[in-house]
Amino acid sequence: MATYTFLEHTADVMFKAKGKTLEGLFEESAKAVFEVLVKPQLVWDGIEEKINVSATTPEKLLHDWLSELLYASESKFLVFNRFAVKITRKENNNFELFGSAFGEKINQEKHCISSEIKAVSYYGLEIKKEGEGYTVKIILDV
Prior knowledge:
By secondary structure, this protein is α+β, with helices and mostly antiparallel strands. The chain has helices at 22-37, 58-76, 108-111; strands at 4-7, 13-19, 47-55, 78-89, 95-105, 119-120, 128-130, 133-141.
């Protein structure tokens, strides 16, 4: 069951993601990004792409995680449908993410890429602690 929803936005794509943990929020955000590109149920998760990023804030970490996923998708012609994230806090208070994305090579006949994402926007990107979990709204420049 998806814990993200797409919201109305004038020109770009906006979604709100939820997670019980910060890691869960990052995984759900990645799922939403790739649903913009392809139907996740059409993607086989046989290839693992490892991505590690670090940042000074959780918001920058999320931005960089999603940006690296898009870069891997474009440069290696991959689409993903499953994600695993581990976030740690380093001694200097920076955040470090060790992640894996699972998917396959793009097959135009099978995947029918529906949109191109130019970038993940920083505009309004704020992770909020709500109740027993986290939420974020993200805008994708398409």
